[in-house]
Amino acid sequence: MHAPLNFSVRRPLLSLETSAALADLTTEAVMDLIRDGTLRFAFNVATPDAGRQCLRVLAVSLADYLNGTHNSKRLLETPAQVRAAVAGIFPALAGDTLRIDTFCRLLSISLDHGARLAETCVQRARHGRRGQNCGTLIVRASALEFLLKRRVT
Question: What pLDDT is recorded for position 124?
């Protein structure tokens, strides 16, 4: 097992590759940890037309694993506990909406990827002008529901 690790990341969700690098594992080994429930919170943030998954791991979940404090008993989770963990990804002080660039930063995705998700998967409160996606606002509740539906178990 790893020595206790304290790390700080600016983004609550980490790519599969970043998670593997931090854990000193292969991406396949991290996938196995997701599949067996050791990494409790992972999400597929791929666009609907993507031919493959685009996985993100909750940084706190990875830290719990690395520190040996994880609880792999997903069956004991209540829907309220899952919702609370996912809601923590989106800052409450943002109000009812998130700027699309904030949404993208929190999910560790590109602005183009976020714009495609905004067109197909989440509710927009306001559309940015053509070529100016940063003016687009995402409804916070729809971003939360998107991740809840996209949790990998």
Answer: 86
Residue 62, token pair as written in the block: 């990875």
Rounded Cα distance between 124 and 140, Å, is 9
pLDDT digits (tens, 9 = 90+) for 54-87: 999 999 899 989 988 876 555 567 889 889 889 8
Q: How distant, in Å, are the alpha carbons of 40, 72, 137, 147 from that of 107? A: 17, 23, 15, 10
Q: Name the pTM for this structure.
A: 0.85
Report CA-CA distances (Å) from 13 to 8, 19, 130, 135: 12, 9, 28, 23
- Compute the half-sphere exposure of residue 6: CA atoms within 13 Å on the CB side of its CA: 0
Distance CA 67, CA 133 (A): 39
